Structures
1.
Amino acid sequence: MSTHPQRFEILVVPEHVEGRDPAHLAEDAIRSAVVEATGETGVSGYPRYVGEGMEADIDPDTRTVEALLVDGAELDYGLSVRVR
């Protein structure tokens, strides 16, 4: 059985809100999704999480998103992603 979290909430936010408390980032998010573990490893080498149009490879120890597709496309410039 995996010791990694089975789900995360991903927030897509404009870059200018970087550094804000994750609890308040939801107010500024232009999109959010709850992603669940697939049991697979992504090309980045980290566990793959999928849900609500997002596909992410997340380092569960640091909660860093190593790779992300939103509706099958990479994130647009000027946007960043945070895990909550």
2.
Amino acid sequence: MILIVEEARSIRAEAVAACKASGYGTAEASNGADALEILENRDDISLVFTSVNMKGPLDGVQLAVRVHTRWPKLAIVMTSGVVNLRQSLLPQRFRFVRKPYATKPLMTCFKLLIESGYREEVSLPQARSTL
């Protein structure tokens, strides 16, 4: 299950459609506070996909920090068309994707991150992803 956090309804809908077409279930939030509430009430989320720039008390970076602190095994993918984050500065199961993004490589990124978490949980050796 992928939690999509994006305040722009049309962009969120496109991400949901891409995830569903790739076989992923989705949950949606339009802001960081709603995303945290969803995460508190569900245990089936394996990846959070969030926009960096969001209005409200939590932007996407603040949300990612809180999610990583509370649920360190969750994969997080952040996206923005305004800022650019250096991948080398992000924790292992974090990725940054610049907007506008192509959905096929994005779904590949999601798949690799979700599978790497599964391998960690069952203690199988894993290769490092360099997305």
